[in-house]
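Thread: quick sanity check before group meeting

JM: Hey all, I'm pulling together slides for Thursday and realized we never actually wrote out the predicted structure for the chain we discussed last week. Dropping the sequence here so it's in one place. If anyone has concerns about the input, flag it before I start.
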Amino acid sequence: MYLCKTALTYYIISENIWPEANREYHPFEINHIVAVCIGELYVLAMASSVYLTLTWLRERERNRSLRENQFKIKLKYLENQIQPHFFFNTLNNLYALSLESSDKVPDVIIKLSNLMEYVLYDVKGTKFVPLIKEIDYIQNYIEIEKLRFENVEVSINLESNIEDIVVPPLIFISLVENAFKHGGLNNKNLKIKINCKVIDNKLLDFEILNNFVISQNLSPKGGIGLINTKKRLKLIYKNNFSLKQSTKLNYYIIRLQIPIHNED
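JM (edit): ok, ran it. Output follows.
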């Protein structure tokens, strides 16, 4: 590099190979060699900085893309876990009714078909769905469970305007299923209450209560569906959500609070 620069300066520009200096220098003098090397180091450092910055930006974008793809794969895996778990339980109910030659079987099949249509077509590939559709899905599920439990009372209370609110698909169904699962054990008069409201235009509050037989010694743990829901919430909202379980008297309570998202 030194030979190349010095030769070009000597033959093309001036025989004075270091015109910036206060005296004339000759080739291969130590001061001149050091000055040329320092100057080229500046150029090399700047070029290296540009290269390393561009490399870092490309690597950051690649990592972001990998994290996003990993997030989608995990979320899809958890969603796919919910569906077989739910339909497995529903088919068991249908099988029990068929053994009894119940005339409720056709109604169960129709309602199950509606649920499958929602899962296979309406929410496929979507990150958020209208809350209204999720409520309709829950109501269809409740109607199926009412065919299974003879004495069950379910009330749904929507306290706020929720028309424009969207939520992750199938995020509440595990909570509702959990209420039937634990509340229906040895319970001849199952009562379930679902409350949904908006808090300060920031949080969506979903609360579900079910009574249970105190002799069951019910502890707020939940099954695979509830564990799955927690993992999905963690992926979607990080730590920006609240899922609490408690018991009060003979009522088991699950309360979920998530940030509000609107369709626009």
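AS: nice. The helical segments are 2-13, 30-99, 105-122, 131-148, 173-183, 224-237. The beta strands are 129-130, 152-158, 165-167, 190-199, 203-211, 242-248, 251-259, 261-262.
JM: adding both to the slides.
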